[in-house]
Amino acid sequence: MLRYLIGVDVGTTGTKTLLVDEHGQVVARAFDEYPLLAPRPGWAEQEPEEWYRATVSGIRKVVAQAGIRGDQVAGISFSGQMHGSVFLDRAGQVIRRPLLWCDVRTADEVRAINEAVGRERMIAIAGSPAMEGFTAPKVLWLQRHEPAHFERIASVLLPKDYVRYRLTGELATEVSDAAGSAMFDIERGCWSQEVLDVVGLSSAQLPPVLRSIDVAGRLTAQAAEQTGLPPGIPVVAGGADNACGAVGAGVVRPGRAHVSIGSSGVIVSYAAAPLRDGGGRVHTFNHSVPGAWYVMGVMLAAGLSLRWVRDELGQAERAVADLAGLDVYDLLTREAASSPPGARGLWFLPYLNGERTPHADPHARGVWFGLSSAHRRADLIRSVLEGVAFALRDSLEVFKEMGIEVGQLRAIGGGGKSPLWREILADVLAVPIARLNIDEGPAYGAALLAGVGTGVWRDVAEAADATVRPVEGVDPDGARTAEYEARYRIFRSLYTALRQSFRDAAAL
Fold first, then answer.
1. Residue 490 in 3-state DSSP?
2. What is the pLDDT of residues 317-335, one digit of tens each?
3. Using CA atoms, how far apart are residues 460 and 445, in angstroms rounded to an integer?
4. Are β-strands 4-10 and 73-80 bridged in parallel, bridged antiparallel, or unpaired?
5. Which helix (H) or strand (E) holds 120?
6. What b/e sequence results for 386-410 when a residue is b if at least 16 CB atoms lie within 10 Å of its CB, and e otherwise?
C-alpha cells in the first residue's frame, strides 16, 4: 500500500498543505488564508486559532483531493514562520495574540538585550545579535509593557510548534526554530541561560528541543476527529520555514545554496560548522539536517515590493489577469522586460518595511533614485526587480567575506518562477541560477522531514537527493554582469548616504 506524507507550512499570509507520496511526488495541495493584524503602525499579530483552523482545513482538503484513506498517511510534519511568540498559560491557553517576525515594536528591547549580554557575545551564542523580529525581544517587551500577561507565562512556543501542540498535546520545539529565537545556543544546542536571565524567563518556561526529524508526538483522538485522520499518526518535529525551504531545495550538503523570493527574500548556504560573521550582518542558525547549520541573508520586502507595485500601479493588469485567467505578475514582468538592464538609469531601494541583513535598520524605507520625466512604468517595474537582486547581493558579499563560495544558486519561491527575475539574479549576483523539478517551498521540506522521521528515507540528504534536482538554469551574461557591477556600487552607496536621513525622518 502506497504511503503518503503531509507537509504543512504555517506562513504569514496563510497555511500551505501538501500531500506527498513516498516517492516524493506532490499529489495534492491546499492553501488557506488568514489576516495579518496591525493594531498600530509597526505591529504585526495573528490569532493562533487561525493557524490551527487552516491546518485542519488543509489536511482535510488534500486527503479528499487525493481520494486516499486516512490510514495511508504515514506522518505529518511542519514548517513555520520564524520568531513569533506564542505565550501560553498553565492551562495551555494563549495569553495574548503573538507578536510576529515582522513586528518591529521592540527596538528598545533589542538594545537592552544586546547591551546586557554584549553584542559580540550574542553573535557567539545565537549566531546573530538580537533583532526586532526575534522572539527574545518580544518576551522582554511583554515583561515591560504587559506585566500581568508576562506573569502568566507557563510556556513560550514558536508558531508551528503551537499548531503541533494542538494536534498532539505535546509541548516541544526543534533546533532550527529554537535557533531563531535569540535564546538558543546554536553551537551547544540548548537554551542559553545568559539570555534567559536578561529576558526574565526560566528554562522550564521553554519547551524541550528536538531534532527536526524526531517524532514530537502523535495525533490525539480530538485532533483525529477534526482532521479526519486516524489517531496515533506520528507528527514529526519539522523545521523553521527557511530551514525547510533549504531541505525542499536540496540544500542539504556542503557547497549547496538557494535563493528564495517570496514576500521576503532569503539567500541560504549550507554550513557544516557554525560559521559566524563577526559583525552580525547575516544569520547563522541550526539546520534541519542534524549536526549542520546554515548561513542566511534576509531582506524584508522582496516579492512584497513587486506586490506593492501590483497593488498600487498594476490595477489594469489585475483586471486583465482576472478576466483572462492569467498571472498578474507575468503581465508585470513582461512589461519590465521592455526596459533595458539598468532600467535606464533608475535604482530602487527595496526597504519598504525597514531592512534585516546586512543593515539591521528598521528605519530604512523604499526609494526610487534617478527618476526623470523620461522614465516609463516599465522602468519602474524593472528597477524593483533589480533592486531586490542588489539587496540580496549585499548578503552574498558577506558570505564571500566569510569564506563561503557559492557556485550555483537554486531558485525557489514565486520570484524564482519568473524567467526575467532569474536572469536578473544571475547577472547581478554573477552566479548561475537553477530552477528545480519541484518548487513547493518549505511545505515540501516539511513533507520530506515527515518521511525521514517515519522511516521512508534514511536521512535528510537521502530524501532530498531522491526527490529534488535542478532542471533548468541560466548563466550570467558577461556584458550585463559588468554593467550591473557598476550599478551595484551606486546602489550600495545610496543606503550609506541615506542612513541618517532615514533615522531623522523616523524621528519626525
1. helix
2. 888 888 888 889 999 999 9
3. 9
4. parallel
5. helix 119-126
6. bbbbbbbbbbbbbbeebebebebbb
Which pLDDT does position 75 carry in this prediction? 98
Q: What is the amino acid identity at position 346?
A: L
Cell of 30: 491546499
Q: Which residues pair with 131 in a beta bridge?
A: none
**In percent, how much of the chain has pLDDT > 90?**
88
pLDDT of 452 above 90: yes
Maximal CA-CA distance, the chain: 66
Q: Is 237 exposed, middle or buried (0-12, 13-18, 19+ CB in 10 A)?
A: buried
d(CA 6, CA 8): 7
- Quick check: 114 and 273 in contact, CB under 8 A? no
pLDDT in tens, 143-177: 999 999 999 999 999 999 999 999 999 999 999 99
Tell me the C-alpha distance between 362 and 355, whole Å: 6
Q: Indicate the SS3 state at residue 14.
A: strand
Closest to 453 measured CA to CA, from 6, 62, 144? 6
Which secondary structure element, helix H or strand E, spans residue 8, and what is its range?
strand 4-10
**Number of residues written out for the chain:** 508
Distance separating alpha carbons of residues 329 and 317, to the nearest angstrom: 8
Catalytic residue list contains 241: yes
Measure the N-to-C terminal CA separation of the chain; round to a whole number of Å: 65
Q: Say whether pLDDT at 1 is over 80.
A: no
Q: Verify cis geometry, omega within 30 degrees of 0, for the bond prior to 358.
A: yes
Q: What mean pLDDT is reported for the chain?
A: 95
Predicted local confidence at residue 325, as pLDDT: 87
Judge whether residue 481 has pLDDT over 90.
yes
- Please report the beta strands in 81-180, taking only residues with DSSP state E, as ranges in sequence order: 86-88, 155-157, 173-174
Burial call 464-473: b when 16+ CB within 10 Å, e when fewer: bebbbebeee
Angle between helices 377-401 and 303-313 (to 10 degrees): 170
Q: What is the pLDDT of residue 13?
A: 86
**pLDDT average, residue stretch 301-312:** 92
Helices 460-467 and 442-453, axial angle in degrees (round to 10): 130
261 touches 277 (CB < 8 A): no
> Which residues are paired to 299 by β-bridges?
265
Q: Are 205 and 151 in contact (CB under 8 A)?
A: no
Query: 367 Cβ partners below 8 Å, 6+ apart?
Result: 347, 348, 349, 351, 494, 498
Q: Determine which one of 21, 214, 241, 379 is catalytic.
A: 241
| Residue pointed to by grid coordinates 500551505 | 16
| Nearest residue to 18 (alpha-carbon basis) of 58, 70, 75, 67 | 58
Residues pairing with 412 in the sheet: 260
